[in-house]
Design brief:
The complex is a heterodimer of chains A (313) and B (317). With 313 residues, chain A is mainly α. Helix content of chain A is 73%, strand content 0%. In chain A, helix 4 packs across helix 8, helix 8 packs across helix 10 and helix 10 packs across helix 14. The longest helix of chain A is centred in the N-terminal third of the chain and has 41 residues. The mean pLDDT of chain A is 88. With 317 residues, chain B is mainly α. Among the domains of chain B are: 68 residues, no CATH class; 153 residues, MetI-like (MetI-like fold), CATH 1.10.3720.10. In chain B, helix 5 runs antiparallel to helix 11 and helix 8 crosses helix 15. In chain B, 37% of the residues are buried. The N terminus and C terminus of chain B are likely disordered. The chains are: A mainly alpha (313), B mainly alpha (317). Chains A and B meet through helix 1, helix 5, helix 6, helix 7 and helix 8 of A and helix 1, helix 2, helix 5, helix 6 and helix 7 of B.
Chain lengths: 313, 317
């Protein structure tokens, strides 16, 4: 009896050791993650100090909520911040307005019954998604700079007398950013819908055809309802990412001409922090952005739970 | 994807005989095909344009007269740009970060994804959440900059690798994948006396190759295309990634062209002296093509995986 329980105790101990050992195996990775994802949160304290780079944080004066107040009370700062938020809302809003386009792309591509053509269109329109924004800018520069392809062809054909400044001007900045985004992402965005299209029950189509539905009837009554759940999830995710336009696109396309309309929040945080060296204000903005983003995510997740009974994250 | 195509085939093949096209159908098809062909041309032409300009006479391409077909074909641009020492360094940096970064993140994703399926692990659920939750918050640019600065990672090659090793999303992919494979394989190995590491190496790794290939390709493309980390953390030209160098070339060429225009006697720029027949345009375009080529090379392999990649991601959401 005693002997039995002793061996049992040993087994428990051994199991315990195995379970700790497993944890120790992943510990190095957890430490790495802690350093690069959790530790930076400590950097939020910089928003509460008048930080001057070569000094240590402890040598800098604590200023409390000064920078947050500055952001909302200083008149020129408020004007600038409003401009940045206007641009952010414009770009994200336009993104959400055009969010049905990948779905439409997939639906109409699905109406092409010539297989090799369909496959080629899908392959070639996805390609721009896999090049960097720097390359997109290089393409844009080659085609649309004052000595670029569009201007030289236009001039040689006599359509325009002066080169049009597509890149170094502030005309239609939002529209051109939207179009570049679509150029890069439309084909890729459609892939998800093409995959869900394949999952729609073919019998539904057969049944509807028997009922006399035409091509558009099928699209309207079967394809679109079949794709809406996917659309909904993607829409919710883009709402959650409303404040995150990303830095790359706006950074590579920005110049002194279009700054007024291209400076979205992510670019502003960069410009403030690493451009002007205002670490504290930049951190304060990042902090608020993170909090708002998490709130948005929790909200859309709750909406999704209520309306679809399923969470998206 | 395969089943999708097959289904489509059957769909096309069978009703063909009795299908009658109405005038409306024909009009719809013409418009539909035309629109898609135009969209496709818009996606492909820019790359074609860059390519034909790099293999044509530099003078003609600087004038903007190469728009549809290459003229006076020559390949010297490709040998010439590699004589720029900056380009050679950046090329090596970009290749190194792509290879090392991909290997590290694939290994970490595979290992962590596997370990999080092991119910015996101490506080497994807690640590899994600890990892996953990092997808949903971001401390911000300056706090990350300060951490990397304090760790001595600014102007350090490892800033390209270390922060990207643990990728929660990839871990979800691997974990979901392993959970979908039969447990009996692992159990059989365990009965034979294999430890966790042996089960991982001998059983789990071989069966997870499809998902690991997906992850490898996506992270390789991500590493190759990455621009932001050089912008934020690196000022040493020896560590510039190819993307960052290209961005500099575009802007330098821009200011160079303006300088030359306003001041015809000026030619003190390193780019101008590179080789007499090189122009800012030819350098910019040639480097662009060099940056695209690796993507084009992996692209055919890639395609098989990306639907799978998104689908698994979509299931998890």
């Amino acid at each position: 009896m005693q002997h039995h329980s002793a061996s049992k105790g040993k087994a428990v101990k051994k199991n315990k050791w195995i379970s700790y050992k497993m944890f120790l195996l992943i510990l190095p990775f957890l430490i790495l993650l802690f350093i690069f994802s959790y530790l930076p949160l400590y950097g939020w304290t910089y928003a509460f100090f008048d930080y001057t780079p070569p000094l240590k944080l402890s040598q800098c004066p604590y200023v409390g909520w000064k920078w947050f107040k500055f952001l909302f009370l200083n008149k020129t700062q408020v004007m600038e911040f409003l401009k940045v938020m206007r641009n952010t809302f414009a770009m994200s809003g336009l993104g959400i307005l055009t969010s049905p386009l990948p779905m439409l792309f997939a639906i109409f591509l699905n109406e092409i019954h010539c297989r090799w053509l369909k496959k080629s269109v899908q392959t070639l329109t996805t390609l721009p998604n896999f090049i960097s924004w720097v390359l997109v800018y290089s393409v844009a520069f080659s085609l649309f700079s004052s000595s670029g392809m569009v201007n030289t062809v236009g001039q040689s054909m006599g359509l325009i007398s002066q080169p049009i400044h597509f890149l170094d001007s502030d005309n239609h900045t939002w529209l051109s950013m939207l179009l570049w985004g679509l150029w890069k992402g439309l084909g890729w965005g459609a892939i998800m819908y093409l995959a869900s299209l394949a999952g729609i029950d073919q019998e539904l189509y057969e049944a509807a055809k028997v009922d006399g539905a035409g091509r558009f009837g099928l699209i309207w009554h079967i394809t679109i309802p079949g794709l809406l759940p996917t659309y909904f999830v993607l829409l919710m995710l883009s709402v959650a990412g409303f404040l995150s336009n990303g830095l790359d696109q706006y950074y590579v396309f920005h110049n002194s001409f279009n700054m007024e309309h291209i400076q979205v929040l992510d670019l502003y945080v960069y410009n403030l922090g690493l451009g002007n060296g205002n670490y504290a204000l930049s951190t304060a903005l990042s902090m608020m952005k993170s909090v708002v983003s998490v709130v948005l995510l929790v909200t859309v997740n709750a909406i999704s739970k209520i309306t679809r009974g399923e969470s998206i994250v | 994807m395969a089943s999708f195509v097959k289904k489509k085939c059957a769909d096309v093949a069978s009703p063909k005989a009795k299908k009658r096209y109405t005038a409306g159908d024909v009009t719809f098809n013409i418009i539909n095909y035309t629109v898609f062909i135009i969209i496709t041309i818009l996606c492909v032409y820019p790359f074609y344009y860059l390519f034909i300009n790099t293999i044509s006479s530099n003078q003609l391409s600087a004038n903007g007269s190469i728009n549809w077909f290459p003229q006076q074909i020559q390949w010297s641009n490709y040998t010439a740009v590699f004589q720029l020492s900056g380009l050679r360094d950046s090329f090596i940096i970009s290749i190194l970060r792509t290879v090392i970064g991909t290997v590290c993140t694939v290994f970490a994703s595979a290992f962590l994804g596997f370990m999080f399926t092991q119910e015996k692990m101490w506080k497994r659920k807690f640590w899994y959440r600890f990892v996953i939750i990092t997808m949903y918050f971001n401390a911000g640019l300056i706090p990350c900059f300060i951490i990397n600065y304090n760790l001595g990672l600014t102007n350090n090659f490892w800033v390209y690798i270390l922060p990207a090793v643990v990728q929660p999303f990839n871990i979800i992919l691997v974990k979901t994948y392993i959970e979908s494979t039969p447990k009996s394989l692992q159990e059989a190995a365990a009965i034979d006396g294999a430890g966790v590491l042996k089960i991982f190496a001998k059983v789990v790794l071989p069966i997870s190759t499809p998902i690991l290939a997906t992850i490898a390709i996506f992270s390789a493309v991500g590493q190759w295309n990455s621009f932001q980390d050089t912008l934020i953390y690196v000022t040493d030209p020896h560590l510039y990634s190819l993307q960052y160098l290209l961005y500099n070339y575009i802007n330098q060429a821009n200011s160079l062209a303006m300088l030359i225009k306003s001041n015809p006697g000026l030619s003190g720029n390193s780019i101008a002296n590179l080789a007499s027949q090189q122009t800012p345009t030819s350098i910019r375009m040639t480097v662009s093509v060099i940056v695209i080529i690796p993507i084009l090379l992996v692209y055919p392999f890639f395609q098989r995986y990306f639907v799978k990649g998104i689908m698994i991601g979509a299931v998890k959401g």
